[in-house]
Write a structure and sequence with these properties.
This protein has about 170 residues and is mainly α. It has a single domain, classed as Four Helix Bundle (Hemerythrin (Met), subunit A). Strands 1-2 form a two-stranded antiparallel ribbon. The longest helix is centred in the last third of the chain and has 27 residues. The chain is globular and about 50 Å long. About 30% of the residues are buried.
Length: about 170
């Protein structure tokens, strides 16, 4: 049963990341700066990937930042854009960096989840602020990816008529 659960969880991480990748790839250059809520499209993608990467680690201490990591873009607090009427002059994060980060997260999800055991999945999340079992915590991470992908998809549909297709499994 544990192998079935791990396989399903890897499949759902990959599916969520595939939908995120589709949104990133389909976003027209002229909309790469568009706001998704109060942040640029690329910043939302980066935030989503940073936390996918971070929470796939065993715990905070074991997290190894990839070479493409950008400290200033990991969280939304304190990184708000200027008021709506001020134009965004440049993209804070290039599309190529986002696509590399998606590949990094896809590999990490496969490796880390494959290494989980029944005991580790039933144990603590590894992050003191999440007081839930690791299995639920990893499902929560998939939901985080889907939450922001849905925001980005809505933005694309609204500004460019682009539809991000549902992916069932990775």
């Amino acid at each position: 049963m544990i192998d079935l659960f791990k396989s399903a969880l890897i499949g759902q991480f990959h599916a969520a990341l595939a939908m995120l990748q589709s949104a990133v790839e389909q976003c027209p250059d002229e909309h790469w700066h568009d706001r998704v809520g109060t942040h640029p499209f690329s910043h939302v993608a980066y935030h989503t990937l940073f936390y996918a990467d971070f929470y796939l680690s065993r715990n905070e201490a074991s997290y190894k930042r990839p070479a493409l990591h950008r400290e200033e873009y990991q969280v939304f607090g304190g990184t708000k854009l200027p008021p709506e009427e001020e134009p965004i002059s440049e993209s804070p994060i290039p599309r190529e960096v986002i696509l590399q980060y998606i590949d990094h997260c896809r590999r990490k999800a496969s490796e880390m989840i494959a290494a989980e055991t029944a005991e580790s999945l039933a144990g603590p999340s590894g992050f003191w602020w999440y007081k839930i079992p690791r299995a639920e915590f990893l499902l929560n991470s998939v939901r985080h990816i889907q939450h922001h992908t849905a925001q980005m998809s809505l933005c694309l549909r609204r500004v460019a008529g682009i539809d991000v297709r549902w992916v069932r499994t990775g």
